Amino acid sequence: MELTSSLGLIAPEILLSVAGLFLLLVAAWAGDRASSAISIAACVVLGAAFFLVAPSVCAGAAGLETVAFGGQFRADAFAGFAKLMIYAAAGAALVVAPAFFTRYAAMRAEYPVLVLFGTLGMSIMVSATDLLTLYIGLEMQSLAAYVLAAFLRPDQRSAEAGLKYFVLGALASGILLFGASLLYGFTGTTQFELMRVAMAGPISTGTLFGIVFVLAGLAFKISAVPFHMWTPDVYEGAPTPVTQFFATAPKVAAIALTARVALDAFGTHADAWRQVVIFAALASIVVGALGAIGQTNIKRLLAYSSINNVGFILIGLAAATPQGASAMLVYLVIYVAMSVGSFVAVLMLRDEDGAPVERLADLAGLSRTKPALAFCLAAMMFSLAGIPPLFGFWGKFVVFQAAVQADLVALAAIGIAASVIGAFYYIKVVKVMYFDEAVNVVRDRSDWAHWALLIISTALMSPLGYLLTGPLSVLADRAAASLFFLV
Amino acid sequence: MIQAFAFYLFAALVLASGAFTILARNPVHSVLWLILAFFNAAGLMVIVGAEFIAMLLVIVYVGAVAVLFLFVVMMLDIDFAELRSGLVRYFPLGLAIAVVLAAELVLGVGAYRAGALELGTPAAETAPLVGEANIVSIGALLYGRYLFLFESAGIILLVAMIGAIVLTQREARADAGRSQQNISRQVSRRPEEATVNTRPEVGQGVQL
Known about the structure:
Chain A is mostly helical and 487 residues long.
């Protein structure tokens, strides 16, 4: 009886894993010729999983009926909201991949399969309410990500990115596991619910150590400062569609997981972890803004931009209120749309030989050679900078509002000041595109799928996006409420 | 009495073979000492009544892991003398780390003994299945309460396997056919395709 209802709750995960296994067999028998067919099938599966999850998000599912497997897994509206973003971002990473890999004759049938299994891991992460589930989901996602980063094996930088990500990721997993073992030792349980109960009262030193170590391990996964060093190298070295995937789906999963751990398992001791999160938030904003200034590679620049954005998202978490969690989710939606748009625009840039363009200087004069593309990319940059008429401003606004409501005025003030520094390099990209002389011809050899993704994300970021604020905040509020619904 | 005797025998042998694993000059001997240590650890497990863990130690660690070590040690040409050459130079650093770790151990155990550390009490729901062999208890847990995690762990292993194949199979694909056996082609091969009759001139070789 309990098993049946649990299996019903993990229906999206079952769908993903069965489809992944089936497509793996297809890949094994049909080989790389079938890779585009498998990509399409994987997109269809992600779409189906999306619609499986959507009802629980709309209904704001919360409470006991969302708990599966005796408290190891919870399919509430918060998890559902994150899953919707993850499935959409994974689908986008599948759509842009074939055009990129075909140039290197490296489109392989395993790519969509690995993306599917990585998505399954993220899906488990955001639903985890037990340290064991947390770790299983995290490792499944990470293992798929290590392989994807090194997917262009003959390319030195891609292999280096994969190895670097693997070694540092293993270290972070070790730190996280050490923290988890301390938490288990001092609270006697691995389940978040029971852990929160066991932690009530004065906090012991051992538990505090556990909290800090677990948060440090998770900070690596969301690439928050001071655990961000791998991000620019991995983002630069990994194939661009994979970078786009890394900047969106795993970030959403890791941030949702961090929020659940902090607000659910450590919920009674917000003061204990809040200073850690505030430090990580401010450091990420500042380092992300300053580090990006000297970059000449667009992918490195976007990597620093993602570090910077994680800082703003963590401000929402630091508030430790339902408003903060809701603001965090709204920001995540906008961040995913902006990242997908920016990376798709970068993917569409090719030089005369059709090789991908990655240097910032190569964008010079894009407004004359490719006005439509330049316009979309400029919109993304202004939106990332948070310039008001664009939708990126709304995300920053709700996050700062939540911080001010939680009496974190100083944090919000420093965040706003640092976001002005960040605006410098976003606007620099626009300046290069619109005011510099063209040095070489940039063409785009893109198909309708790239344009469709770019137009959708530009439309979202344009002032038209404000039409969505109503439904978006209602759904995010429900999701945040389900996170705070204590069973 | 016999239990205490067996315990001290196994424990002493574990310690001794562990020490010899580190001290042995020949790496192959090290691995053999390691295998002895595993066997004795399995004996200790039998004494505490964890016969399944004992069996796993012998089958998995001795049967697979240690043999793998042995293969690696014998096949890789590692100059162990060179690896040891920095010993004197790094000795102070190693000693400092060892002292720090020992101090941490003493502090931790001391604090625990003094009652300064209060460990959590395990949630009460982990009552063992009374009267069952522990392989039954482990099976009941793995396929019952932890079914979801157990199956997910299986998928992790699958992902690792796909990853290993994706990353290493690449070079082999360049000259496809050499790395893979085409059974139907082998079976359907006729003798006349495989052999040729030639009549070379005296003093000339055969062109193959």
